[in-house]
Structures are given as C-alpha cells and as structure tokens.
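Sequence design from tokenized structure. All designs in this work follow the same two-part layout: the structure record, then the generated sequence. An example of the structure record is given first.
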C-alpha cells in the first residue's frame, strides 16, 4: 500500500466527489459497499458512471434512494446509528468524529444545543453514507498519511431550507476553523459541510512532503465552473527515502508540572505532530528541567506551536529543519487465534526491516477474548513471519 495520500480540491470538496475519486483511484467498490452495509440503512445504493470535466475523465457518484425521501434526523439518532454499526473500529470513530464536527458547527451557527440539532441535509442517507464511506476509504487504503491542499470555498449565495445563505456557508467556516483556506473560488458552493468535515478530520491541510506518485483518481462533480474543472483529485504514492521536510520544535521548561507536560505531548500529537517527548536537563542556576520536543511536518508548525504554548508555561518555542530516513510502510492483515490483526511492515530498499502488530488491533482482540495484549502481539508477529 502507498504511505501518502494527497487530496487536491481543484473544483471543491464534497462527500460524493471524494468517494468517486477514491473509487477511480482504485479502492474496490465491492469492499466499500460491503462495509457500508453494516450501517443497516435500507433503500439506497451507490451508482457510479464515467464522467468528464474540461476533458478530464473520472467518476461521478450518486447515492440513489430506493424509496421515499428520508426525514430529518437528530444528531443523537445518527450518532447512535453509526456508533452501533459493525464498522472497523478506527473508521467508526473517524465517522463519529466527523458527525460531531458538523453537529457542533450547526449548533453554534443556529444557537442551539448539540442534542437539539436536527440535520436536514446530513440526516439524508447520502450524507451519512458519504461520511462513513470517507472513513472507510482511509481504512481500505491502510490509513496512510493524508494531506490536502488548502481549498477555495466558493463565493456568492445559495438557497437552503434555512433561507439564502452566503457562500461559504457558516457551518463550513466553523468546521474548518484552525486550518488554512483560500478565499474566493468558483461561483457557488465549492466545499460542502460533509466535504469540510472530511478535510478537517481525515487530512492535514497544507503542503505534502516530496513523494513518488502511484495512482491518481478524479471525482467529477455536477456543477460546471467557468474557470476550472469541477473535479476532486486524489493521488497516492510513496514518500521519498529522505522523508521530506520536517521541523523539530522545542521548549525548555523549569516551572511546569508533569501533568501539564503529559497533556502538552498529547495536544501536540492531536495537532499533527509525528512524535512528541520530554527529556530531563539541568538548566541555569542548577535547576532541574525538561526539554519538551515535537517532530512535525512544516504544514503543522503553527498548530503544534500553539498547542505547546497553550498547554505549558513556556513563552517561546524554537524550531529548526531536520531530515530523516524513513522505511516505506504498509499494513498487512494476518489471522490469529483471536481474530484479524494488522501488521505494520517497514521496508528499506525492498528489504523488510521491521514488522510490528498494530497495538490498537491487539488491544481490541485482547479485550474480546480476555487475554493479555502481549499474547495477541506475539501471535500476530509470529503469524506474519510464518507467512
């Protein structure tokens, strides 16, 4: 599997365009549909067809309803539906996170509590399928590092059940708060709330590191823009052996409790740091202290810096560019006596240099069977090396 996924919102981002681009890229439609069937929502199907925009050939996707239009659903009802579905655990959590982002944005825009939000657009089957399907796409691709170029959100006005709203819609701006966007764009809505949630939850928004492209897929939208093709481009590939540009961010701390340092490490990782840690040092006047550090992509510098400043007592964060050599990575699934477990395989020049079972998978299997996690780890590692 590729270890990098690059999303380019050439003509915007919408849930159906993302699924279409993923299928055109090569995600198996049968596998995606099989997982989506776990939602247990009757009366819908995925319809795809070849389409083009400005001479670019891709796929257009519709979620076709086979019955009366669905009624509006409340946030709690949708969350219970998705939370109770037999989806892969990481995909289910990502789908719930996207639903919550949209729900909180709508609640803030309309001045109501989250449990009072009723989704008209999101309550429709196609939007639920779009968000769950997007999480499943990342699952089927092995959860590579996913980077999206900053989107243009469109301009003008649009009619909704609430009335005429400006473009970009208020909910879209709420969902994308904290990420880089580009004002302007095509006339009309270029990024939908579901598209914004996919960007915000599943992707880093910024510039991808150097990589070697493998495959490209195009999702073709319905509208036709005068100044650009209405397509969403998705490319997968392998990061270059040098690993691309990274930054090492550091702060010295001599007056910060261990609890705050632990939270700062968590916050840095939540904001896109690839790793974060603290190491003891002796500071001026002989004081014991800590160096709090994080390794982050250039595109996440500001977000990770804010996290370190917000969660600790430091007043400054220094940073410098670093390089690293990375092994190419892919996830392979093995069968164990306790169920399937993914194994992260690292290769350098085609040679396997490491194969380590995914901790989260092993923890789930251990809880299911009431055995120690180390036993599942041992079985999964042995199963991979036997194979």
């Amino acid at each position: 599997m590729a270890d990098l996924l690059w999303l380019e919102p050439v003509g915007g981002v919408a849930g159906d365009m993302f699924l279409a681009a993923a299928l055109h890229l090569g995600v198996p439609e049968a596998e995606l549909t099989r997982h989506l069937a776990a939602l247990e929502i009757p009366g819908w199907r995925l319809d795809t067809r070849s389409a083009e925009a400005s001479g670019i050939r891709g796929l257009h996707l519709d979620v076709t309803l086979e019955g009366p239009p669905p009624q509006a659903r409340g946030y709690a009802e949708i969350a219970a539906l998705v939370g109770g579905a037999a989806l892969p655990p990481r995909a289910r959590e990502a789908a719930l996170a996207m639903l919550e982002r949209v729900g909180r944005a709508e609640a803030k825009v309309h001045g109501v509590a989250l449990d009072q939000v009723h989704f008209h657009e999101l309550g429709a089957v196609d939007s639920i399928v779009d968000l769950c399907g997007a999480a499943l796409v990342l699952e089927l691709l092995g959860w590579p590092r996913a980077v999206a170029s900053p989107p243009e959100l469109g301009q003008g006005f649009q009619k909704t059940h609430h009335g005429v709203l400006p473009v970009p819609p208020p909910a879209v701006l709420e969902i994308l708060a904290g990420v880089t966007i580009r004002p302007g764009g095509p006339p009309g809505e270029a990024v939908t709330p579901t598209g914004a949630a996919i960007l915000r939850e599943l992707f880093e928004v910024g510039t991808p590191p150097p990589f070697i492209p493998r495959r490209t897929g195009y999702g073709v939208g319905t509208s036709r823009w005068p100044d650009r093709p209405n397509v969403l481009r998705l490319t997968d590939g392998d990061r270059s052996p040098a690993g691309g540009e990274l930054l090492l961010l550091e702060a010295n701390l001599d007056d910060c409790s261990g609890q705050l340092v632990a939270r700062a490490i968590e916050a840095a990782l939540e904001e896109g740091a690839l790793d974060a840690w603290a190491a003891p040092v002796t500071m001026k006047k002989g004081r014991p202290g800590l160096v709090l550090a994080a390794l982050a992509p250039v595109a996440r510098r500001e977000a990770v810096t804010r996290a370190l400043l917000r969660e600790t007592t430091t007043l400054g964060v220094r940073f410098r560019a670093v390089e690293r050599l990375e092994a190419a990575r892919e996830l392979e699934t093995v069968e164990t006596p306790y169920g399937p477990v993914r194994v992260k395989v690292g290769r350098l020049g085609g040679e396997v240099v490491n194969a380590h079972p995914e901790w989260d998978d092993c923890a789930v299997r251990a809880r299911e069977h009431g055995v120690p996690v180390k036993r599942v780890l041992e079985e999964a590692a042995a199963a991979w090396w036997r194979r």
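The chain has a mean pLDDT of 90. We note this feature because it recurs in several other targets discussed in the main text.
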